[in-house]
Specification:
mainly alpha, 2 helices
C-alpha cells in the first residue's frame, strides 16, 4: 500500500485515505525515510546560504508592497 500515513498519526488529515486503502486488505510496509548524503560539503553550504538569502529577498519584496 503506497501513499499511506503512519498509523501513529491519528490526527493527520489524510488518515481517512489510509483507512480506505486498508479496507482493501494488503500489507502495511514501512520503509526507511529519506536522508541527505553530502558529497561536496562546500557546495552544500554555498547552496544552503544561497537559499536563505533568496528567501530573505522574497520576504523583503513581498513585505514592501
Amino acid at each position: 500500500m503506497f501513499g499511506a500515513i503512519d498509523k501513529r498519526m491519528v490526527d493527520h488529515p489524510q488518515m481517512g485515505a489510509t483507512k480506505y486503502k486498508e479496507s482493501f486488505g494488503g500489507d502495511y510496509i514501512e520503509f526507511l525515510g529519506e536522508f541527505s548524503l553530502y558529497i561536496n560539503k562546500p557546495k552544500y553550504i554555498y547552496n544552503k546560504i544561497k537559499v536563505k538569502i533568496r528567501t530573505k529577498i522574497k520576504e523583503f519584496k513581498t513585505r514592501k508592497k
